[in-house]
């Protein structure tokens, strides 16, 4: 699991994935969500604008990232 530091108290899922380098542009997250490839804290996520806070675990395929 990789920690991805954020400078704010919360961050939107699309912004977080861009910050982590998993997507190039925010709209790329849509296809990942539609395919059910993104999980937040173990649950399949369908909202691009989901607010993440420190400690949340985001899984995309086999990559696990923690909001730090």
TrEMBL record:
The keyword RNA-binding applies. CDD domains: S4 (cd00165). Keywords: RNA-binding. SUPFAM superfamilies: Alpha-L RNA-binding motif. Coiled coil: none annotated. It comes from the Bacteria. This is Ribosome-associated protein. Gene3D superfamilies: RNA-binding S4 domain. Transmembrane segments: none annotated. One of its GO terms (molecular function) is RNA binding. The keyword Metal-binding does not apply.
């Amino acid at each position: 699991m990789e920690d991805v530091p954020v400078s704010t108290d919360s961050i939107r899922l699309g912004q977080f994935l861009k910050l982590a380098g998993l997507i190039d542009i925010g709209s790329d997250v849509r296809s990942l969500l539609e395919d059910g490839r993104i999980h937040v804290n173990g649950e399949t996520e369908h909202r691009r604008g989901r607010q993440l806070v420190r400690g949340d675990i985001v899984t995309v395929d086999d990559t696990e990232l923690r909001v730090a």
